[in-house]
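Can anyone check this?
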Amino acid sequence: MNRPTILLLTALAPIAWGTTYLVTTSLLPEGHPMLAGLLRALPAGLIALAIGGRLPSGGWWAKSLVLGVLNIGAFFPLLFLAAERLPGGVAAAVAGVQPLILLAMSTMVLRDRIRPTTAAAAVAGAVGVALVVLGPTAQLDVVGVLAAVGGVTSTALGMILTKRWGRPAEVGAVGYAGWQLTAGGLFLLPLTMLFEGFPAHVDGGAVLGYLWLGLVGGLVAYTLWFRGIQQLPVIAPGLLALLSPVVATILGTTIAGEVFTPVQAVGIAVVLIALVAGQISVRPRRLPTQETGTPGELADATV
């Protein structure tokens, strides 16, 4: 599979995640965000495990738990806490700095060299997201900002370790996603039962919403996402993640009737330019295949 195809498939994940806000606010019962996260992760993980047909073995039990908590289990509670304490635009703007966090981590953990053009693309992407989602009345809350930063840092570290550890050669992309989704879902299960429980009433729209989040936003999106992280230089999917708030804004305008401003149009243009420039600036280089990786999927990069 060539690199443009991998990029396009990986981009489907943040595009799917960009529908989460609209689905949550339009279809799901209020006051149960952690339940939405649980149902997005655990059922999808169990389905993926059944399709993949393999459980972790040896050190992969611990690695799957760590990755599942970082990428899903810890990320969701922090995401929802930020959503409760911050306007949606502020939370999304904080998420826009994730490529910068990835660049810093990649130099420390993966020993990648940062190219100036890649760094400039990451900065431009963060600025573009801010233009798309921040309004003049945006208010800051210290706890909310810390939660948002913690969430994007958790997933950034999860991406770095996913890249570093690879996956066992005998395990497919669906099964590998199943390990992490299941681990993250099991981490969320007691938290959900303790702090939220189940809504008194779930209608047909909520069922459709949960199915969308679990099958599309969970099973399909995370399978493509984790495979993309392993096959691409780590900053590439990091920049693609900026598509999520852009898609959320477009859906809010076209479906929810939200106002779309010229500043947001400029922001979307800046994000798209940063995405293209960032992908062009990355030059993959082949490293020796790791013991835990799939042959041909552990190409690293100078970012």
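Reply from J.R.: I decoded it. Residues 59 and 113 are 29 Å apart (CA to CA).
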